[in-house]
Specification:
The chain has 475 residues and is α/β, with parallel strands linked by helices. Among the domains are: 96 residues, Cytochrome b5-like heme/steroid binding domain (Flavocytochrome B2, Chain A, domain 1), CATH 3.10.120; 99 residues, Immunoglobulin-like; 135 residues, Rossmann fold, CATH 3.40.50. It has 11 helices and 21 strands. The longest helix has 13 residues. The structure holds NADP nicotinamide-adenine-dinucleotide phosphate. The site of NADP nicotinamide-adenine-dinucleotide phosphate (NAP) has 25 residues, from helix 8, strand 17 and helix 11.
Amino acid sequence: MLNVPPQAFPAPSSQQRAAAGGRAKVPLKPGRSLMDWIRLTKSGKDMTGLKGRLIEVTEDELAKHNKKEDCWICIRGFVYNVTPYMEYHPGGEDELMKAAGTDGTDLFDQVHRWVNYESMLKECLVGRMAVKPIAAPKEITSVCEEKKQLNGMLPEKKVLSGASKDLTPSYDWFQTDSLITIVIYTKQKDMNAELVILDHEDKRLRGEIIVDDYSYLLEVDLDHAVEEDMAVNIAEKVGKVEIILKKKDNVHWKILGQPLESHNTFMKRTDRGTEVVKPYTPVLPFLPLDFKEPSCHDSAHIYLMIKIYSCGLFTQALDHLQIGDCISVSNPEGSFKKSQVQTSEDLFLLAAGTGFTPMVKLLNFALTEVSCLRTVKLIFFNRTEDDILWRNQLEQLALKDQRFEIQFILSQPKKDWVGKQGMISSSLLSEFVKRSRKDSKVLICICGPTPFTEQGVQYLKDLGYSQEEVHPFTA
Ligand code: NAP
């Protein structure tokens, strides 16, 4: 193995020449040329004895395979069973045996580091070297570094919590002529694709793996350009994630890339400055109480009504923004059409909690611009009285506009609540959602927690409302 001819080496038949490294070659038996080797590797023969399975190899295990009839060698973190290659090695069996059962990377590099051994020994790949366990960090916040003897293949690790040390994932990478494969060992059973978030722009690669409340991040400025499409393979039961990148130029990469700031860190998700996207429906600064100025739209401001959840990832970060901080805002999304309201006679709005937000502009539009509407009714579900958003404005609006009616329904009211109590149900909807005339055109809009919206849609269907008459707002 250690004297494999380089790619530019003359034809396999001229094996008696000296190798570029200056080492003498040995005569090979007939039928043991490079072409013969290639033919053998393509024959489908099980070259590793593992029936195509890849395993993690400990140093102890590697050391056991140190005989001519059972010889494993490690190169750049990957272990090959070179036993079948022995007789094909132009430098002879003894040369190859110098690295038997050990890490032969240095020896290999001294002789011919330019040789494309990954391709030559592809079928002999046994697996990768197992990562050594890291010593437990003494302090809660610490950075442990581990440098192994495998030619820098194993990265340094940042362990940010003593409690999470056993879970700390690790990564490794290898390459073929055309592919770069990054392997992440998450040490998490039941890994699945939803827990892997990949982002790639130009040469910058960001891969986040969610492990319970923690997040493991790979963030690298890649050594060379890669194609846009990448693949992810997940071995769910062992928690192994493979990210496969396609090289743009089939060059040999010396390193995976330059690590970026948060590269190879494992920390609580809430501590990570990660990108989170949330849809919100813009509202108005107030309800249309003053009809002299029906339009409170201005093109310079967007008003959002956002509930800050005490354990929320996004809303907590939002709540801590300072004046001058920036957030990105996407283009608008959604399928609601104003024409649905313009042709209606009865408008029913079923809102739960912050599901009230899409109703704000709808109310404004309906009451100020749609003259054919006879009734507009908001049925507003909340837990407690304190949770009712804009209660005062809504009550004032009901006093001002005869067409508008408001009904508050609380699921967890205090004892002194005299209003309606309950959760969304068929009987409650049949009580409050009624056509003003037998055949009047009706539109029912519904928004709230997903189960609330789904149940509401089902109840309305059961009550005989058609799909066109019901518009659920779903995020
Ligand atoms: P919340 O205070 O937790 O709940 C509001 C009301 O909804 C309460 O009466 C609550 O009753 C009821 N409710 C909650 N879960 C329910 C369920 N599974 N079945 C029946 N009723 C249920 O609401 P919130 O914290 O403001 O959350 C509002 C939700 O609306 C969020 O999930 C938000 O994402 C969503 N939203 C969606 C849009 C959109 O455009 N798609 C816009 C705004 C808001 P209980 O006391 O029984 O829980």
